Amino acid sequence: MQAKILVADDERHIADGLQMLLADDGYEVDTATDGTAAWEMIQEGGYGVVLADLRMPGVDGLELFARMREAAIPAEVIFITGEASVASAVEAMREGAYDYLEKPLNIARLKALIPKAVEAHQVKQANRSLEERLANLSRFGDLIGQSDEMRRIYATIEAAAPSTASILIIGESGTGKELVAQAIHDKSPRAKGPFIAINCAAFPREILENELFGHEKGAFTGALNEKPGCFELAHGGTLFLDEVAEMEPDIQVKLLRALEQRSFRRLGGKKEIQVDIRVVSATNKKISKAIDSGELREDLYHRLAVIPLHLPPLRERRGDVRILAESFLRRYAEENGKPIRGFSAEAIEFLHSYRWPGNVRELKNTVERATILTSGEQVTPDDLRFYELIRTEDREVRIRVGTSLEQAERTLTLKTFSFVEGDHQKAASLLGIDEETLRSRLSRFLASDPAPAT
Ligand SMILES: Nc1ncnc2c1ncn2[C@@H]1O[C@H](COP(=O)(O)OP(=O)(O)OP(=O)(O)O)[C@@H](O)[C@H]1O
Ligand SMILES: [Mg+2]
What we know:
single chain; 454 residues; alpha/beta; Rossmann fold; Helicase, Ruva Protein, domain 3; five-stranded parallel sheet; 19 helices; extended; binds adenosine-5'-triphosphate
């Protein structure tokens, strides 16, 4: 769509002249001969580019620009300026004005500048609507979630998908790393190509090497036929290396080489095979630890993590719990032919407060089990079997006879506090004291010697 242009200049002949020139190029052009009129027209919207004289009586070009910025009006602004005020125009460009044209106007420069400004405006509009779209998403591919954290992930996937840059997904078990990898593939230009996943932790060294690079006939005893590896199978698509921090050091060296050169040899082969692949990998390890301990080569890490993507654990995006739980419930209720309407209020409360150490996978399994076991129309905390879910040692303290009250209180308080993950309000309410008392006791307990083992 062609953008609309507004020309604001108090010299009528300039405004009219520009209108004619730009209309010749196919633009729809309005004019205003003072800043106040221009501002009214701009507020009504629809302009992609505003050409504004810097010096106008009343509302001048700079004021107009300032108002537009304040109202977040997305049009690009080009100033028309005399020699004397070039400096202010340059200053305004630093604040986001698109460019300026000096009087007397150079027509060739004007005609070159306008299409660029129109394009800049359109690109910004497109990005803006992408941002707006992502900001409202509650699912993306097969990923469900509407927390800011997940929306950031969606935006990163969307931005990274078109390139071939390697992406390393880092997140606890069950956070959805494989789904993210699949979403990257599906959103990429390689979506029609293969998505080949291999779990690097699942194979002993020799077999992993064989799985990754394949072998020639006769490469080893029993190699009766040639066999292509994952690198070849993923040609034209995406190779997903799961649990990538679990590889033996010498395979890491081979992998690094293959990634750097985008070529490799099959076991027992002489020929270098070139492949066009996008590599996405995943790990649930603390990367800095894995590198420090020598488990993961640092050079390989940098090669894999051109774009690192941190998937936060579910307990750090509790806002997603409900939407995930409800969508799993709908799915499993349908699959099992159960007329379940939803979760009871208490069940929702439990889902929210539970720590989900197994993340989305645990939530999914919990909901599936509840769906199958429940006999009512609503899932209740009993169906979620939440007393079994919370590991016993997390909610029990053992206090020996002979322990002082002070010591017992200390143990119970600290255990409660850690059980609610440092939530003062919850801890205080469980302990039946007010928050201020809790805080003062915590600081007293934390300052004293550790409790004897309980
Ligand atoms: N955001 C999500 N929306 C919907 N389903 C999800 C989401 N995240 C995870 N899941 C589901 O949870 C389960 C675990 O996800 P996935 O296998 O991707 O986790 P992972 O991070 O690869 O775990 P692991 O480290 O154990 O391999 C899958 O069944 C997946 O479909
Ligand atoms: Mg996985």
